[in-house]
Amino acid sequence: MRRLLPAALAAALVGSLPKWLPGRVVALRVTIFAMVNGDEGLPVPVEDFRRLYADPAAMGRSKGAALSDLFWYWLAPGPEVHQEHLEAGPRYDEVAKTTRHILVKPRAESEELTRRVAAHVLDELEVGEGRLIRLRDEMMPIWAELYYELVFGEPCPPEARDLIVGHADDVVSALKCVRPRNMRRRAKLTQYLRRRLADVPHALPSRLSPQEQVFYLQGTFFNTAVVQMSEAMAHLLMIIAQHPDVQRRLVENPYDDAYLDRVIDEGLRTYPLFGIAHRITTADIELDDKKIDAGTVLLFSYPDFHHAGFERPEEFDPSRWEPPTGCPVHAAPLKKDVNFLPFGVTQNRACPARGLAPITMRVVTREFLRRFAVSSSAAHTRSIPNRGPVFLTPRGSTRSTRGTLAYLAVRDRWEDVWRSLAQLVFGTYMVLDARRKRLCVAYFANHGGE
Length: 450
Ligand code: HEM
Description:
binds protoporphyrin IX containing FE
């Protein structure tokens, strides 16, 4: 009996790990990040969010924030010419104009291109009678093919697709601290793009050297675009997997765009892709009750903003976006009046893909649901480090999902345990390494203004 007690206690402790360990490890990681980076930022209260974001003096992007060193580290190579990081000026203007030019296409053409690449990738996905997959992994090839074709104007060869997926996966895994970054893996895509630069049919920013043009394409289209779209679709399909009523309605009404848009909007509200965006003030800002000094790092929390002012804010409820009874117009007027800015603030470098992204998400959702029924018992959080595990069965299959979902729930909880420990180790390493390399500080020390 005396020998059995410690064994029983140890078993109970081990068995309860998934319940308490991941949360504590995440809290420890946050503390370590704050210790290494210091608390330089000023969190912007929700009520000042729009006003401050839109202020002309809140436009500094990188220079002067220790936080920038970490983002430059994660988004390397070429963070100094990444559109998100460039300071205002002629180089930024030229880069932003090129991005708009590459993204703009007649809507029908964008839809047809998306349908073609989604069908190509999803038709390759073997699920047999049913298969567990991770949504982010299966979505990445779609966006790799799509953005390759937008940039190069021709279908994506398998070699390029593998390099783009390898690169985007490396960036997003490092961002979520589940792996350290692998610069050799990223360099393979850089070399490929360098070889193919002359084949790009668009005029590229003339103020950038050929090597910088390569970095620009790699950063904006084969990193940000592929990562953001894969994450957005992983969230959306995960929501659909966990809301059978929503899935049923979408499948029964595949051309009800208004409903699908409400589901997409509510998904972006509940799981905004950006956590905290930062800006550095370039001049003093006077508010009614306080003054913010030039050089302050402003921290804009999208999750806090998207939660404030909504009833049951953590709940996914697409009916929030239904137009008021009697209003024949779609919900757009309502969006301006609530705390919802999934693509950022128009006056301050909003997302250049804000027109294209929802159109393409709609097409991919339809192509996906036409082929597969999707369900999941895994955890769904904003950072989605589990990459959206779901069980897929061919649409129309009558196979029971109960056993597989029970297994998935247990597997997901245990993965959370080892993942949280890996994140602690890799996250701490990367924060320290970024602090040591100081990519942003070193760049501005050598280049001055832009
Ligand atoms: C659903 C998908 C997407 C969401 C929700 C999203 C969201 C956002 C948000 C909130 C910002 C502003 C961040 C800030 O203020 O600091 C932003 C900026 C940006 N996004 Fe997106 N994005 C998405 C897809 C894309 C795609 C497909 C591209 C591909 C080109 C892209 C490229 C960029 C760039 C380059 C910026 C920086 C803009 C600038 O500083 O001029 N995004 N995005």
